[in-house]
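Hey, can you fold this one?
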Amino acid sequence: MSIDLGFCCGGPQMIEYTVREENGCTFIFGESLPIHVLATLSGGRSAQGKIMSPHLARLACALFAWGTPQDVAAAIEKYTPIALARTKEYITPEMRAMGDEAIRWLAIGQHGMSSCSILWKTTGFKPALILLVEDPRGRYPADPDDLGRCRLLLEQVPYVRDRFQIMEHFGPIWEAFVEHWDALCATMDEEAPEWREGKGSAPKTGKMMDDIVRSAALI
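Sure. Predicted structure:
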């Protein structure tokens, strides 16, 4: 069951957005949403035990989405085939050249600034999340969650994995990450063996990443 409610906010330039309540999850649709409105909508007692899910939001073409972990997981399962079918409607020759695995990742993969940067720099195709990013070096992973999304990309898309070494040419920080990639992955696997399921934490991995960035920035 879903209920859609339309709202307007703002001063002279009104911002229209829609709130959809669907099977325990809340979705926000629209072009933009002031941060204070988001805080109001997602806060309070009703938000206890709920998580914000950028992945679900992207699958549903929403600005934001949240719910309990169980409800979010169920919604992701529902919207995954919908997002995959939607992507297949506008496949370009450039996308097709990367293979079915890349198309699937573009449709339903875990996207972050750094994972999208890897796809961009190894294939020339720029995902929607980073269309406005002008840094020619792309973004490097900022924390273990970011690193996990990058690892999933490399695991799921052989076309990108085979070209990952290219990233060492995009500045000293990326060069350092490529050099220490295997050590980072091994540490992360040891700390959080269920990281692919979003479980566990990896503080040692995070510290290694911080050290890599700090050292490379001095070069």
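DSSP finds ten helices and five strands in the chain. Let me know if you want another pass with a different chain boundary.
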